[in-house]
UniProtKB/TrEMBL annotation:
InterPro entries: ADAMTS/ADAMTS-like, ADAMTS_ADAMTS-like, ADAMTS_CR_3, ADAMTS_spacer1
Protein name per its UniProtKB record: Thrombospondin type-1 domain-containing protein 4-like
Gene transcribed to yield this protein: LOC106548340
GO BP term (any one): proteolysis
The keyword Secreted belongs to this UniProt entry's keyword annotation: yes
Record bears the keyword Zinc: no
A single MF term (Gene Ontology): metalloendopeptidase activity
Domain ADAMTS/ADAMTS-like cysteine-rich intervals: 4-85
Amino acid sequence: MGRFYEWEPFAEVKGSQKCELNCRAVGYRFYVRQAEKVIDGTPCDQNGTSICVSGQCKSIGCDDYLGSDKVVDKCGICGGDSTACRVISGIFKHSLTNLGYHKIVEIPEGATKINITEMSKSNNYLALRSRSGRAIINGNWAIDRPGRYEGGGTMFVYKRPNEISSTAGESFLADGPTNEILDVYVRIKHHFFIELGTRGTILNS
């Protein structure tokens, strides 16, 4: 008597196999090539900058030409040499003790290749707001899941490493350019216990 399998796409392959139709049996560790070629236009890399054409993985440049090797430079210019902009960098070292949100840096309009990263893991959370006060990530005393969030005309990737096993800090990453001024805050976390029946007061800065 035969066995039935449920199949799922399998993309953990290299080289010429990237444009084959490979499927893995759900719950098992083997995969099967179902076809020599996938449909033309199928993405064949994680960045989405290459597609399959006649069974081969072809790159697409930022100029939208097949086979082009042009990429967007640090200034957000396709085929540029990163000389049309300047780098703004720094490290926030101030001691913060009051509870609440504290502004640490302003991201100007037109910023590209944005990287806001904690130097190491802490008990606090990064937060991102528009200049009008609209919460984009981790606002209004809520903690968002790591993921992609749209704000300021670009897409931010919010990373929060495993809170138990990792020592890395949180980060906000975006290609830009931004179309408005954005403010980055750090939220000072609080957590305490009091005896039942005792009144407690939280002071927000």
